Amino acid sequence: MKILIVKLSSLGDVVHAMPAVQDIRRAYPQAQIDWVVERGFAPLVRRCAGVHRVIECELRRWRKSPLSKPTRQAWRAFKTELQRERYDAVIDLQGLSKSALISWLARLAPQGKRYGLANQTEGSSFEAPARWVADVAVSLPPHIHAVTRSRALCARAFGYAIPDFQSFGLLARVDQAPSAIKNVASDAKGVVALVHGTSRADKQWPLVNWRAVGQRLNDSGYAVALAHGSDEEQRQAQEIASGLAQAVVWPRLALDTLTDALAACAGVIGVDSGLSHIAVALDLPHVQIYNFDTAWRTGPLQKARQCSVFADPAPSVDAVWQAWRAVSAAHAVKTA
């Protein structure tokens, strides 16, 4: 069986789709699973166990100059790559017009079908073409976690029960993380990554809070590391790190290298962002910070070593610190 997954973006959404791939692998161990994704996230999808072929697109860039010669050439090359195979099933896990277009362009095997969402779920976008293109449109409960949404769509499409065990299948290569990233301080108990950056201002946590948590981590014997993806995030990271005895601002890293760097950490504290969702996928001790109550939809799912903290307008330093102590204790019990 040849299956095509269509989940183009964003980073967190791509991570949330990975458990569905692992479910399919358990139900159909011999299946070939390909995945269409935006080029920027392709390095991460290549780390997803069971993905045979990653088909890269750049719809975000192409739509800025759709009629230019480079765009037309790139689009033709993408279509050629997409249509190289005939699929027994094309699964649109995004539910948008752009993902519907990709599903429609994909070639089907003689008995192949396209599957997609039949309805919108709370907090997730949905556009009508996704239902029109689907040969089989799957209705889901409106109140559903983002991970469960993808898992449920695939389970209903293929007729299996969602396994009790959840795995993201995200493969990290800790041994390939640069030593300067893995070993911030030789005398520290470990490195805790602080994921402060997010594309949405309303998800940010005050910098003074980050520094306070960093200080408590230092006082507890942990070193602190900060990642960044833009000049502004780098400036903020440097501001957080200033004054901390054991803190380092990582260089700007490619997504796969950053995944390796996170995997080498003792844990992660972060806002609701793609990197925090990677921490969840890596099964790290993790606290996810929310300024509004959407953790039910995107936060860690009921794990002692991973939790979310919510408060309006923002969680306190004490609340985040107590959550970190709890997940650290749970991790220590598991690894004892």
How would you characterize the overall build of this protein?
It is a single chain. This protein has 14 helices and twelve strands. With about 325 residues, it is an alpha/beta fold. It has two domains: about 1-160, Glycogen Phosphorylase B (Rossmann fold, 3-Layer(aba) Sandwich), CATH 3.40.50; about 175-335, Rossmann fold. It has a six-stranded parallel sheet. The chain has a six-stranded parallel sheet with strand order 9-8-7-10-11-12, sandwiched between helices. Helix 2 (about 40-45) links the parallel strand 2 and strand 3. Helix 1 runs parallel beside helix 7. The longest helix is centred in the last third of the chain and has 19 residues, at about 315-335. The protein is globular and about 65 Å long. The chain starts with a strand and ends with a helix.
CATH architecture classification name of the largest domain: 3-Layer(aba) Sandwich
Classified in CATH, the superfamily of the largest domain is Glycogen Phosphorylase B
- Distance between the first and last residues' Cα: 42 Å
User: Got a strand count?
Assistant: 12
How much helicity do the residues have? 40-55%
Structural class: alpha/beta
Task: Name the strands of the widest sheet in spatial order.
Answer: 3-2-1-4-5-6
Rg is 21 Å
Uncertain runs are none
**Tally of contiguous helical segments:** 14
CATH topology of the largest domain: Rossmann fold
Shape, principal axes of CA atoms: globular
Order of SSEs, N→C?
EHEHEHHEHEHEHHEHEHEHEHEHEH
The CATH class of the largest domain turns out to be Alpha Beta
User: What is the averaged pLDDT score?
Assistant: 94
Percent of residues in beta strands:
15-25%
